[in-house]
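Homework help board

Subject: predicted structure for assignment chain

Our instructor gave us this sequence and asked us to write out the predicted structure in token form, then describe one feature. I got the tokens but I'm not sure how to describe them. Can anyone check?
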Amino acid sequence: MITLALAALSLAIWVYLIAARGGYWRTAERDDALASGAADGALPAVMAVIPARNEATVVGETVGSLLRQTYPGRLSIVVVDDQSTDGTAEAARQAALEAGAADRMTVVRGVDRPPGWTGKLWAMRQGLAHVEAGAEPPHFILFTDADILYAAPDAVERLTRASLARGAVLTSLMVKLGCESPAERLLIPAFVLFFRKLYPFAWVNDPRNATAAAAGGCMLVRREALRAAGGLDAIRAALIDDCALGRLMKGQGPIWLGLTQRVCSIRPYARLADIRGMVVRTAYAELNYSPLRLAGAVAGMALTYLAPPLVTLFGHGWAQAMGAAAWGLMSLSFLPMLRFYGLTPLWSLAAPAIAALYTVFTIDSAWQHRQGRGGAWKGRFQADAAGSAAQG
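My token output:
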């Protein structure tokens, strides 16, 4: 009887997820539908702000790709060197020189982080302050990470035209992550899929829906709208800074979030441990540092992803049939994202094992927080500030 109830509940969950969770499993929200790159007049000024802490190996490619954009307007860059020790500033300057556009790139040396701020947001705030102190502050701020390659020369133009056409105060792209190593092929498509399940893009993009999110690698923001919302100071303690910015900006007007093949991350995750570190840094923050929510998340993952294959393999009768149906829907939900990343559909059969790994990472995130190592990034443990903000 218990097995039958578990199978029925798992199947009901999957019917809901497929039919009523904003079509999260599809890949419909993509920048293919954004405005074309045909230049038909000047566009408002855009200033890219790149927070960078010990990013010498990647920041040059990011700077170079931005400076090579065919943007029919003023496009310039501020790199905030967040107290790096590896030559990050020099790498950024060299890239600008090689692009023949040193006059369009400025490096700001970051100062010590004040209490209550997470590191990335404080770096972004310093870049924004530099921008606003200029004689002609830009219409748009492009917050972008130091490992983001703007592979298509019209990527920024598409973002800007789409923002203007929609009247959006925030237009964000979930950049395409690397998917070369075995660890990446196993876990990266699921990482994006799970993010979409938490924040269905169709709901994010619907002004009538309260769901809000953004993807931190590429976020084009209307500067005046950000100021009206209280600026980055309003979210200064957020560890998951992109989703916090999405919520903040949706209070000011429409936002848009989609997938892209034109902008990609060049940060490799060659080992399982690399992806674990990425997830562990913020997973417990997503649960608001709540042990009760952690227990609920673990139980939910077990019921949703582990129960179907177990009931299918070891159950009987109706329980086995419902378990198989749930497992089938689970596998089908992975297929569009696997196709987006150019992977074989056979990876969908590993969905239960993938979910189990992410569940372990989430538990580990809570453990690291308990040990005072939460929110680890580039030698900093930031979850204390974020945790107090989340709770207070």
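Reply (TA_rk): Your tokens look well-formed. For the description, you could write something like this. The chain has two domains: 2-23+273-391, 31-269. That's the kind of observation they're looking for.
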